[in-house]
Amino acid sequence: MKLYVSERAPNPRRVQMFIAEKAITGIEEVLVDINAHEHHRHPALSRGPMARIPVLELDDGRILGESRAICTWLEGRYPEPNLMGRDGDERAFIEMIDRQVEWCLTLPLAQAIRHQHPGLAVLEQPQFPDFGASQQVKAMESMRWLEARLQTQPWVAGERFTIADITAFCTVEFARLLKLKPAEAGLPAVQAWRDRVAARGTAR
Asked: Which residues share a beta bridge with 158?
């Protein structure tokens, strides 16, 4: 199998961290330079309608895109340690929180960075800095929601580490491109949680 990734992008990092948490071996990583638009020209990636990464190329030649779908496939093949829920009830609540992090924190933060960071101008043409600034405000509202959760429980989805922590961690780390750090933003619980996740040794 081959996993197509890029440097610093949060979604490939989510899958890389998921793989590391499960100690999965034998997946070859292929680095793609998205700033040079390699993902549009690559023979495997261009087979998909969106040519986005991460993409997992399976041994049978199928191309699986979308980070959450890749993680679901990996969870099915490598069920331990469990990161997405042991039964239907737990899976539903973990997915709910993971989706809330994706839509309410990861997405607006990504838009804030893509429209404000000069290094991403090559990927976002034209950039709309005012829109990016408005998305940063929304992202910080969601950071405060995350702060409130982590003041009452150790992990994003509850009492144990799950995919929701991976999604949130990769997002919080991506925010550094805008020089946003939880401690400096008045989010001590998020900072303490971030430090615990980083100490696990699976973050790349």
From this structure: 155
The first and second tokens of residue 164, run together, are 């929701």
The pLDDT assigned to 130 comes to 97
User: Phi then psi for 190, rounded to 5 degrees?
Assistant: -65, -40
Give the model's pLDDT for residue 204.
73
In this structure, is residue 118 part of a structural domain? yes
Long-range contacts of 140-144 (CB under 8 A, 24+ apart): 140/180, 140/185, 142/101, 142/104, 142/105, 142/108, 143/105, 143/172, 143/182, 143/185, 143/187, 143/190, 144/187
First to last CA, the chain: 20
Q: How many CB atoms lie within 10 A of CB 149?
A: 20
* Residue keyed to tokens 């946003």: 180
Question: What pLDDT, on a 0 to 100 scale, did the predictor assign at position 2?
Answer: 95
Instruction: Report the distance separating Cα 30 and Cα 135, nearest Å.
Output: 31
Low-confidence ranges of the chain (pLDDT < 50): none
Q: What is d(CA 24, CA 147) in angstroms, rounded to the nearest whole number?
A: 31
118 cis-preceded (ω within 30 degrees of 0): no
Residue indicated by tokens 């408005």: 134
Please count the structural domains in the chain. Answer: 2
Tell me, yes or no, whether 51 and 124 share the same domain.
Answer: no
User: What type of residue is 105?
Assistant: L
Q: pTM for the complete prediction?
A: 0.93
92 and 71 both lie in a single domain: no
